[in-house]
Write a structure and sequence with these properties.
The chain has 282 residues and is an alpha/beta fold. The protein is 46% helix and 16% strand. It has eleven helices and eight strands. It has helices spanning 2-29, 42-46, 65-73, 102-116, 137-151, 169-186, 207-213, 215-223, 236-245, 252-257, 261-267, and strands spanning 37-38, 50-55, 78-85, 121-127, 155-159, 199-204, 230-233, 270-277. It has an eight-stranded mixed β-sheet with strand order 1-7-8-6-5-2-3-4, sandwiched between helices. The chain is globular. The mean pLDDT is 93.
Length: 282
Amino acid sequence: MRKKALSILAGLALAAGFLCAGLFVWASSLFSEPSAREVPSVAGELGATRVLAVFAHPDDELRVAGLLEAAKARDHAFTALVTATRGEKGSQVPKVARQRDLAQVRTAEVLKSGYALGIDEQEVWDFPDSGLAGVDFERLTARVEEAMERYKPDLIVTFWPASGESGHPDHMRIGLAAQAAAHRLSEMPAVDGYRGAKWIAYVVAPRRGIRAIGGEAGAFVAANEPAPDLAMKAKLSTRLRGWEIHASQEYSIPTTYRLSARLYYLLWGDEFYKVTELKERR
């Protein structure tokens, strides 16, 4: 009788294991994009040697951690990161500092995160967090254009302007400003031999996946994103380390999506990019 009971329990455990594995495979499939071709490095695939990432908030760079890390470590490209705000309006999860000091805390976090990713140069600007949509667009675009002239990238990395990958208005605004600046430079005569960026790589979310876990914002993102062209892996250890560095935001994924960061990234293993080619400057 005892052997029979143990046999039944073993069978149930095996069946449960198969069920869990099947559920994981199904859930993972939601975070795939059939249009995206898997590459080891987006910068390497394009032949980019200078990369400039333009984002809104401290921690946004974690959305493209794989691209930035591979560009530096694998392809030996120059990498730079612009963060347009200091993230002072963010909710602390967990609370690690006085709210009035959050801008300084998050500035330090993004600088440390960039260093861990091997980024060569960083700038953290002081545009208002959760207020980029209210900033004069010409002023914001001109600031991004100046950064492009300074760092001379051939690849710009930013948010898709119509969705911001998460639906955040700041994400959409900085994506639009980066797009406008890159296109404007491409139409101007070359300066000091710099002929402007050749490509913009817009980071986008897997549409079925973000719709499944993102609620109303996820549905908005899925409805306003293009099919990506390229996909690449990001190291799980790099992503988890990034959230440890961003201590004031470490639990933002569990808070937002009700998934542990580890499970979230096991499901969402790839970074996805829509790449557009820019007209070469004269």
